[in-house]
Specification:
With 457 residues, the protein is α/β, with parallel strands linked by helices. It contains 20 helices and 16 strands. The chain has two domains: 31-179 and 339-409, Periplasmic binding protein-like II (D-Maltodextrin-Binding Protein, domain 2, 3-Layer(aba) Sandwich); 181-337 and 416-455, 3-Layer(aba) Sandwich (D-Maltodextrin-Binding Protein, domain 2). The protein has helices at 2-8, 11-18, 56-59, 73-88, 103-113, 127-135, 143-146, 160-163, 188-193, 203-218, 237-246, 262-276, 287-292, 306-315, 349-362, 365-375, 389-394, 396-402, 417-433, 441-455, and strands at residues 63-68, 94-99, 122-125, 167-168, 171-172, 175-176, 180-187, 231-232, 252-253, 256-257, 280-281, 298-302, 322-325, 335-338, 341-344, 408-409. Strands 2-1-3-15-6 form a five-stranded mixed sheet. The longest helix is centred in the last third of the chain and has 17 residues, at 417-433. The protein is globular and about 75 Å long.
């Protein structure tokens, strides 16, 4: 048992994964001319009273600083948003933006800034980061802002799995900035040829289809593909977590970490049994290419991958139809939703109001629509779907994923999830690296639970 522990639960690995030391690429933009123009309209009736002390004179020319985790397409689009807001907002608020390159560097840099006067006003961070900063008294509760009669937002316009992630007891520590999920992708055309007329809705269905796909490889004339077929194993954290949820398990019990339970054991045994029967396989150089080349009936992917997968099928000259599925659970399926959030840090009343007004503008339908078109992630607001009718026509798999949003599940609403989720992914990957026998998966889960409790102390 101690040997198993030493193989993959090493604190230094976790610390390295959580906070890689990289030098941030900082791009600062301060907008110039302020003009009266477009602003977001109140979400509630015009007769509603605002409880926020919005002093337009105090806001005029007030600068707020925003730190982001991006350095590519998202950063470019966000900079466009900043420029537009600076030129159009009626209050004359000026937004400056800095890229911190990635989430790990962002977390470390923000945390280091908190005791100083250099802390940002708005951070696009992971929900577990927001939980920690709120517990430490530096992130504000957004309930009064969200519920304001004039300057609030309509909570009912956000799916529950997006909206409820940023709750800490009765406080709201953030607002959704981006949301995505891991999905199973299924080659429907190949499944039809194998004798299946519908997607798997249970783990038993999933096993049957995976094993028959592998058997078809054994029965053809090509010996090089005999180890292929079935599910191409993916060991990312959200894949492990989604499979646990599919078996009615998870990682929490009454807000404490609990890995060692019968449902989680069943989930991990099921997955290891698939591998032992060669109905699941590993070591593909490129899972997307393998899927397009009919080497796997199922792969796991997130929303950002969908356009790449579609292009891979074109390159492979493969006209097979593939569908987007949740993880099967004998019902409608399940998937773990994840993504970043807008977190406002404490400053003074005027700065916090200015930061809120910018955040609220970012959540308007127009900006939400453009986020989708650039990143291919979920729309945050249900009402935005009406603006995306042309997009969904050209992105049918994205539309399938959006239809599965009601099956979305939350991640743990705990600051410790920042490190525990890395441990979960590391342990899950270790289980495949060493080909853990089915009979030993309980030991893996027991050690995960012990480690999770240590990390949360």
């Amino acid at each position: 048992m101690k040997k198993i522990i030493s193989l993959f639960f090493i604190t230094s690995i976790l610390l390295s994964a959580c906070g890689a030391e990289t030098t941030p690429i900082v791009t600062t933009q301060t907008a110039g001319t302020q003009t009266a123009g477009k602003t977001s309209t109140p979400e509630s009736s015009s007769t509603a009273q605002s409880r926020l002390q919005v002093n337009e004179e105090a806001l005029r020319g007030l600068e707020i600083n925003v730190w982001t985790p991006w350095n590519d397409i998202e950063q470019s689009l966000f900079q466009t948003f900043v420029n537009e807001f600076n030129n159009e907002n009626q209050w004359g608020i000026v937004v400056n933006v800095q890229s911190q390159v990635n989430f790990s560097n962002l977390y470390e840099t923000v945390s280091a800034s908190l005791p100083t006067n250099e802390r940002p006003d708005l951070v696009i961070a992971l929900p577990e980061h927001a939980q920690e900063w709120f517990a430490n008294g530096v992130a504000i509760d957004l309930n009064d802002y969200v519920n304001d009669g004039t300057y609030g937002v309509d909570a009912n316009d956000f799916p529950d799995s997006f909206w409820n992630q940023d709750i800490a007891s009765d406080a709201r520590v953030g607002l959704p900035a981006q949301r995505t999920a891991q999905f199973l992708l299924w080659n429907k055309t190949w499944a039809d040829e194998l004798g299946f007329d519908s997607a798997p809705v249970s783990s038993a269905d999933f096993r049957q289809q995976s094993c028959r796909a592998h058997d078809s490889m054994l029965n053809d004339a090509i010996t090089q593909n005999d180890a292929l077929g079935g599910w191409l194993v993916n060991t990312e954290t959200m894949t492990a977590y989604s499979w646990m949820l599919a078996f009615d398990g998870g990682v929490l019990e009454e807000n404490n970490y609990r890995f060692m339970n019968p449902n989680n054991i069943d989930a991990f045994r099921f997955l290891r049994d698939l591998s032992e029967k060669n109905c699941a396989w590993q070591s593909a150089s490129d899972p997307i290419v393998s899927f397009a080349n009919r080497e796997a009936l199922f792969i796991t992917a997130n929303l950002k991958d969908f356009p790449i997968i579609a292009r891979a099928f074109v390159t492979a000259e493969n006209r097979d139809e593939w569908n987007v599925l949740p993880f099967p659970n004998d019902d409608a399926g399940v998937m773990a939703v994840y993504g970043s959030s807008y977190v406002i840090l404490k400053s003074n009343n005027d700065k916090q109001i200015a930061t809120w007004l910018f955040t609220r503008w970012l959540l308007d339908n127009g900006q939400d629509k453009r986020w989708v078109e650039a990143t291919h992630l979920f729309p945050l607001r249900t009402s935005t779907l009406g603006l995306l009718t042309d997009y969904e026509k050209t992105h049918p798999h994205w539309k399938q994923a959006v239809e599965l949003i009601p099956q979305g599940a939350l991640q743990p609403q705990l600051a410790s999830w920042r490190t525990v989720k890395i441990m979960l992914g590391d342990g899950f990957a270790h289980m495949y690296r060493v080909n853990t026998p089915v009979g030993q998966v309980a030991a893996i889960l027991a050690q995960m639970e012990n480690t999770a409790k240590e990390l949360s102390e």
